[in-house]
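Reviewers of the previous submission asked for a worked example of the structure-prediction workflow described in the proposal, so we include one complete record here. The input consisted solely of the amino acid sequence. No template or homolog information was supplied to the procedure at any stage.
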Amino acid sequence: MKQVLLLSLIFGLTVISLSAQAKTPNELTDKQWQDLFAALNNEDWNTAFDLSDEYLKLLKDNDEAKSIANLRYMYLYSAAGKVFVGSMSYEELEKTIKNFVGKKIVFPFRQIATKCRGEFNYICASGDAKNKAMTAATNKKGTSIFAFEYVQLKEDFDFDKHEGKTAAIGGVVKSIVPNPNKSTIVILRIYISDGYILLAEQKEKRSS
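From that input alone, the workflow returned the following structure tokens.
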């Protein structure tokens, strides 16, 4: 099994990318981002959820830097974390995620893998399909799958060519399905339409 990526890597690249963008009146400060990422890295799910919830309300839909799409993922991820540690019920979870359908979302940076057999936190090719991808997003220890993420890409993607490269997935939330069994082993299934894969090297070029 490939080593589970630490949250500092998964989310850290996003911090760099967001910091490189020009600040707007609706943008969060570096301190606000660092507080959120520290909570995520420390798996302090209550703080991470409260901060991401606060920031989403602050930015609303007027975030010119597009970081609100990243925040939506952090919100969902930390909400799943709260369910995992027992500080949020499945009933509460369903209420918090119902307004995300139809909205843009951006996942954190991860490595691309062509064949995943039990690997976590990788962007995995979905069988032989070139227009589908999936990820099993977990906590650091890999003891809980916070979300199975299924992505329908707008265009075919050459997974073999980009094996091992770091990338982020974006798209539109088609549906979010909490585990009907209310288990903490698997918590959410997130389905994304109009998806795309953005390589880290492409992001760097756009920011320079």
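The first strand starts at residue 104 and ends at 106. We consider this example representative of the routine output the project will generate in years two and three.
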